[in-house]
Amino acid sequence: MTSSGESDASTDTREAIMEATFRALAKHGYSDLRMRDIGEELDVSRTLIHYHYDGKHDLISAFLEYIVDQYEGSVAVPEGADPWSELDRRIDRCLFGPGFDDEFGHWERMKVYHDLFSQAQYDERHREVFAAHYERIRGSIAAVIRRGVDEGVFRDVDADATAQVVTDLIHVARERRISLGQEDAPEQVRRAIDEFVLSSLVDAEFALSSMRRADREAD
Amino acid sequence: MTSSGESDASTDTREAIMEATFRALAKHGYSDLRMRDIGEELDVSRTLIHYHYDGKHDLISAFLEYIVDQYEGSVAVPEGADPWSELDRRIDRCLFGPGFDDEFGHWERMKVYHDLFSQAQYDERHREVFAAHYERIRGSIAAVIRRGVDEGVFRDVDADATAQVVTDLIHVARERRISLGQEDAPEQVRRAIDEFVLSSLVDAEFALSSMRRADREAD
């Protein structure tokens, strides 16, 4: 979005426009959003929007890349975490949010995200951004499952199929909370992921030998 | 929607308005829809829309109830079907469609449905219709699971939690096909439902005794 030669002032302006777009989308929703709603959220001159973006569609596409980048940058996993901890952490972050340190909480961001997601059927460019984002979440979960299998901590499962169903359930938990107002959907889906999906990762022999080792060490 | 004293002509008009709304939504999407787009799809005078509905919101609410009714009436399960057949049939109908016998296919209907679903976050009335519909699908799947448990065909699982995860996966399969254009999502999710969820229903002892009985009968 930002070319390397761009001045700091220009980067600041774009950031300000993106945050104004956030506030306007959170207030009005995508379907009722007009360019002037974004202008009204902006402290600087609204003509700057037209200088930087070629209409509503171009602005919303840029905004989509902006929130997806923010979201992806927010899942930090400590170096050396074991596969179970990393997997839990990634799932929990997606379901319960990373706690953004600003005026918008996780669910304010998710509302805007899911609003735009549903409109992606009408827009090839948005569809590509969402598909790539979905794929990166799935990929990061598949990678930790694959690592767990390699390290002998997880059973030898199909990492891609397992990661897909986890990612799908995360998505639907957010939808149910946002569109249907089911506040407990993320907690409920977290239990379903444990019971129906992660249970397939448990290597009974490995779990047993770990327990035996712990017993011996306790003696 | 239709009071019992209403004339057939009035019912026909409402039906015509509902189908015009369908065509207009499929063409323009909810966010760009104007009342006059619906009028343009209508053979009769567009002033009839205003006679029957109190603005765009009232019309869309009535339309939502109309497609949800259509959809719910379409899942026919033969009398006396065993629990596995009924469960498969219900899941397949939701995932692959009942093959409506008119100009719109299942996916045209689903596109409109999911478009409105995402907008339900902004509308209490729509939210209630969707939540009730979601709950009825979940309930019909829970009922057949409960029956299977009672008949000793399924293991004694938590029918509500199991039905919830099946319904959630159906929802996300449709979303991925519609919003992300992933044509193979329904087939892929069908396999995931079998592997991760329905596998929990298999009563190993019951399966074994059935096999033994079949063996004896074959002798």
From TrEMBL, chains A, B:
A GO MF label: transcription cis-regulatory region binding
Listed Gene3D superfamilies: Tetracycline Repressor, domain 2 (1.10.357.10)
Residue stretches making up the HTH tetR-type domain: 11-71
Keyword Lipid metabolism: no
DNA-binding stretch(es), residue numbering of this chain: 34-53
Keywords (A to Z) from UniProt: DNA-binding, Repressor, Transcription, Transcription regulation
Keyword Nucleotide-binding listed: no
Source organism, top-level taxon: Archaea
Identification of the protein by name: Regulatory protein TetR
